[in-house]
Amino acid sequence: MIKIIGVSGSPRVGGNTELLVKEALKTASEERVETEFISLAGLNLKPCQACRSCGTTKECIQKDDFQAIFSKMVEADGLILASPVYFGSATPQIMSLISRAGLVSGAKGRVLENKVGGPLAIARRAGHNFTFAQLMFFFFQQGMIIPGSTYWNIAFGREKGEVLNDEEGLRTIRNFAKKMVWLIKKIKE
């Protein structure tokens, strides 16, 4: 069974980032795949200390919620990483996750390589491109395969629920989720 996980990097529970990730996962589940939503809100996820211990231990030496999330990333066939735009960039929560995941993956022999994934960026008004690129660099650096859509995977919204009014954004995210499932199935053939 194909499994796709979606990670909301927003510290806000029930916000636009969460809604958008859940919309992508709902679309993927309609294609008969297993999905799981992970919210970083309220989790203990420390930033990378750049200690490079993972190069020796093959694990991050920090004890927090990272390991459980990373294990799910490794087990999944597909990965969606989403962040709202905070001061022109991705949230500290999602950046902590990807900086640590990138190093641990490398230490374990590039365990995320050839998985399918992509970013989602949500903003009130601007900053999508930089945030989208920050997340996209993680997928490229890990050697993951990134499907396209009908536009960049971005949407607009500030107050909780406003993203659901962005019809083009929702359509783009749904198309991205369908393309993700299609690509994973092609890879597994």
Q: What is the H/E order?
A: EHEHHEHEHEH
Morphology: globular
Q: Architecture, according to CATH?
A: 3-Layer(aba) Sandwich
CATH class, anyone? Alpha Beta
Mean pLDDT: 96
Largest sheet: 5 strands, parallel
As laid out across the biggest beta sheet, the strand order is 2-1-3-4-5
Strand content: 15-25%
Contiguous helical run count: 6
Number of strands: 5
Q: Can you identify the CATH superfamily?
A: Flavodoxin domain
Topology:
Layout: E1 3-8, H1 16-29, E2 34-39, H2 54-57, H3 66-75, E3 78-84, H4 92-107, E4 116-123, H5 128-141, E5 154-156, H6 167-188
Parallel strand pairs: 1-2, 1-3, 3-4, 4-5
Helix pairs in contact: 1-6
Could you characterize the architecture of this molecule?
It is a single chain. This protein has a 5-stranded parallel sheet with strand order 2-1-3-4-5, sandwiched between helices. The protein is globular and about 50 Å long. It has helices spanning 16-29, 54-57, 66-75, 92-107, 128-141, 167-188; strands at 3-8, 34-39, 78-84, 116-123, 154-156. Helix 1 (16-29) crosses helix 6 (167-188). The chain is an alpha/beta fold.
